[in-house]
Amino acid sequence: MFNRLVAKYGEARLPRYTSYPTAPAFSSMVGPDAYAEALAKLAEDDPVSLYLHVPFCRAMCWYCGCHTTITRQDRPIVDYLDVMDQEIELVGFAARHPTQVKNVHFGGGTPTIMKPDEFRALMKKLRSVFDFRDDSSVALEIDPRTLSAAMVEALGESGVDRASLGVQSFDPVVQAAINRRQTPEQTEEAVLLLRGAAVGSINFDLIYGLPHQTVKSCVETVRTAIRMRPERFAVFGYAHVPAFKKHQRLIDDAVLPRAEERNAQAEAIASELVAAGYVRIGLDHFALPDDDLSIAASQGSMRRNFQGYTTDTCDTLIGLGASAIGKLPMGYVQNQVPIGSYADRISAGVLATVKGYRLTDEDRLRARVIERLMCDFAVDLVRVAEGSGFDAGLLLDGNERLLELAADGVVTIDGGKVTVCQESRFMVRAVAAAFDAYLGASGRTHSKAA
Q1: CA atoms within 13 A on the CB side of 274
Q2: pLDDT band (50, 70, 90) for residue 386
Q3: What residues form DSSP beta bridges with 57?
């Protein structure tokens, strides 16, 4: 069944649906003025989340799909942080009042490429402009290979309580093929340092479908990782898009696992994690039973955003830094991607927004449907549509793709409730795509569904 379904639905490149509409629908019709207007309308007592993008690394991992720049020098990082300070001031001024912050997430690149005092200063700037709550959570993405004890001390002092560590694979052959050499010992040392600084929730990122990767090497990696007992795992399939990420051309297509092997790797990792006591959550996350994410998943309150599956319930995300995407009640905004263009905008006293998207009521409805499918593998179209002031016929009538999925046994449709069948959950992105009104409209390219 797997090969047949992938052949039928997996040929098209599908979004991961961390937003709807997805970024290819954004346009220059939404710019800095629209963003400033949206910030000014934020309610003072409505908490927001912040995302800060730090687009620098010391070396390029060839599998990487992020916006990042390689630098051996510290000067570009220092200059960038100065510009980010200015952006924080501009955003705070546009919001017109100290906005409450519930969650902060540092992504990259490698956020811990900053010096400890630089990180302390950045957190101080955020706290001077925004109103941090007593229960505010601060999360950070970390490269264990370059994490120092001094940096961990700064993280603890600054209130970081969540960390996500890049692991990908412990297989030396795979590591050589992706230009990322990282030992289990380096990773374990980082975990111990973070635990000592009261970072209470640690996530490991693993990737399957990498060059030379096998089911055996995936199992060995996950067994090694389990012994370190992180609270969560995120397990992603490698997205090979060398036309867009030129450094991926350094990876030999001939040694990449094919679709059936990729699926076997994903399921082998999942089996090991479940056997070790982790709860399988959504498409690609795993967490210990008492973790907040497991609890949210069991209660049907889990959300999905640009960081993947989350317990973040904020409706507003303020993005800071080059390429950062934000979400507000009006829709989405994205900053300039090139670091120089971003810096020029901010230095001129102008918000760096270069494009975005204004949500319609129908967009919001479809976003709710897609989010519930991605989180719960089921959605009651009648209930969600009526709750949004629509008739479910908008989603069901003439939906040939959904009917095909039902005919192929991927979903069941019962009284307007769509449920992804247990054995077909790897196809959930294809199911979500049945409710995407924009898919295929702009020639956009995404990662393969399987």
Answers
A1: 9
A2: very high
A3: 70
List, for residues 212-247, the tens digit of each pLDDT value.
999 999 999 999 999 999 999 999 999 998 988 999
Counts for the chain of helices (H) and strands (E), in that order: 16, 19
- Roughly how many angstroms between the first and final C-alpha of the chain, as a whole number? 13
Whether 8 has a pLDDT exceeding 80, the answer reads no
d(C-alpha 236, C-alpha 197), whole Å: 28
Asked if 329 contacts 34 with a C-beta cutoff of 8 angstroms, the reply is no
pLDDT tens profile 124-155: 999 999 999 889 999 999 999 999 999 999 99
Residue 60 · residue 328 · CB < 8 Å: no
Which element (helix H / strand E) includes 123? helix 116-129
CA distances from 354 to 29, 90, 91, 229, 332 (A): 9, 15, 15, 42, 11
Write the DSSP string, 194-221: HHHTT--EEEEEEEES-TT--HHHHHHH
Residue 210: Cβ-neighbour burial (10 angstroms; 0-12, 13-18, 19+) = buried
Q: Which two tokens mark 263?
A: 């699926």
Q: Which residue has the tokens 């494009």?
A: 355
DSSP 411-430: EEEETTEEEE-GGGGGGHHH
- Residues whose CB is less than 8 angstroms from the CB of residue 290 and which lie 6 or more positions away in sequence, other chains included: none
Backbone conformation region of residue 245, classed left if phi is above 0, alpha if psi is from -120 to 50, else beta: beta
List the structure tokens of 245: 């990420």
Q: Using the 8-state DSSP alphabet, how is residue 49 labeled? A: E
Residue that has been written with the tokens 């009651």 in this structure = 380
Count CB-CB contacts under 10 A for residue 269: 24
| Contact of 48 with 42, CB cutoff 8 Å | yes
